[in-house]
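Morning!

This is the sequence you dropped in the shared folder:
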Amino acid sequence: MKLYRFLSGPDDSAFCHKLSLALSKGWELHGSPTYAYDAAMGTMRCGQAVVKTVAGKDYDPAMKLGEQ
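The structure's back. Tokens below.
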């Protein structure tokens, strides 16, 4: 089964660490990153989709994707 996540956050080192952690757990980049201005917060925000194929599991909406 292929899982999909979209990671987002402020343009700071915490976002880079979040993405690096996902990559270290076997997630792979999917598509291009996004970068946009959040007018409400007055900051830039980053986003990146990641995917991971896991064997022997059925999809369950209650699963915690970050723990896969």
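Headline: Strands lie at 2-10, 28-38, 43-53.

More detail when I'm at my desk.
O.
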